[in-house]
Fold this protein.
Amino acid sequence: MVSWGKSLRLEVIGVQGIPLIKRGDNIARLLVEALKRMGENLRDGDVVVVSQVIVSKAEGRVVKLKDVKPSLRARVMAERLGREAEVVELILREAEEVLRFRDGHLITRTRQGYVCANSAVDLSNVSGGDAASLLPLDPDLSAEKIRKEIRKLTGRKVAVIISDTFGRPFRLGQVNVALGVSGMEPIHDRRGEKDLYGRKLQVKEIAVADELASAAELVMGEADEGIPIAIIRGYKYKRSRRPGGRRLIRPGEKDLFL
Amino acid sequence: MVSWGKSLRLEVIGVQGIPLIKRGDNIARLLVEALKRMGENLRDGDVVVVSQVIVSKAEGRVVKLKDVKPSLRARVMAERLGREAEVVELILREAEEVLRFRDGHLITRTRQGYVCANSAVDLSNVSGGDAASLLPLDPDLSAEKIRKEIRKLTGRKVAVIISDTFGRPFRLGQVNVALGVSGMEPIHDRRGEKDLYGRKLQVKEIAVADELASAAELVMGEADEGIPIAIIRGYKYKRSRRPGGRRLIRPGEKDLFL
């Protein structure tokens, strides 16, 4: 568990029975209780993937639209986007930079550094449509807090990933990615390993935290199923104390694709 | 199995004992034999994820570098990239379009439509470095052939994904994506479904084939472990007869991120 290992069999387990989350809720405790009702327990080495929206709710990162005063800029953009000015105001507040603004879409770099649609401001699964969830201010810290609380409650050493579904360039559809990572290295750097023929791998840095988030999404579903947490069991990751999510963000000036 | 279903528990199983693949090899047969040695069998509804490199080898999409005559353009670019002119020649031949060429990197749109580094021309796991693998000419067709052969050999209805690890903009590290897909819908379109509060989801098209490819990578590893195939069991996908990989490619003119 302390380093990358061979994992020939993984399990991905959706956690049933997590209640609707309110500000101040202890997600680690609710997880442990839900697992107990399922007849399950956390084990050392499990990866716990938590959907961003419940973390945002527990941290109070939810804003009622009626409490938002849109700026002139937000109102003008909202008109062109065909969206509510209050929502656009929140998108702009969460944006470090607006990267694209056309065809009814806003692509921004958020204050945390993620590039995504609408600063990930989301009206789904928050309330009937009169409030929006914002990303946690520091998803790595959110992940660390949940990891430490799990350790306190159960004694188990796990890794925690805070995930959200993001669109991406070049490919259609959204995939779940890792915003916050605690307890593991987010990237498996395999450069220098030998291939099947003894030749050194040149380029091979696998974003395993994103792949774990994607695997978790297959059982999660953020909508009516209400499975906001999944456990991945059997993956032998390398443990790390460093915040991991921010290390998955490609610095703009190093972006070969743009 | 005929439509999207609730899947609370998945297994991801790395297939051991696949031999080194040669041109003309029957991957479906080698898979069935390897599973038998593991005491496993395919089941209806399994998703079989196959690493691109063994498909390319079986299809003869491997080129000896000494048989490649580099053009003047390839030689000039190779000089600037610090790479072998023969490899750059292959990258250019596989490219529909060169999108970026700087800092020692070539980003292309391949003839199949994928945007990736170096047209996915790869010297790893092919030989000692004197040959390169090229992507299958039509990964959807490659997936379909393997799926049909599995059906013939075992009677089992499975989905097949041909995968490769690609870099991506905005985020560091590579993730496994689905190049070819047969037997399933590659995208779970959840628009119109209701959220936890009865509000209709606005934007929710999950690229589940990419997420399945990413989940598979966690047990695959393309290097010395030699696990080029993984089975995902328990995921309730929607069956489809339409080629799926090409439907994950975002048309350039619709790319909101660029």
User: Anything to note?
Assistant: The longest helix of chain B spans residues 139-154. The CA atoms of residues 188 and 206 of chain B lie 5 Å apart. Chain B has six helices and 13 strands. Chain B touches chain A through 81 residues (CB under 8 Å).
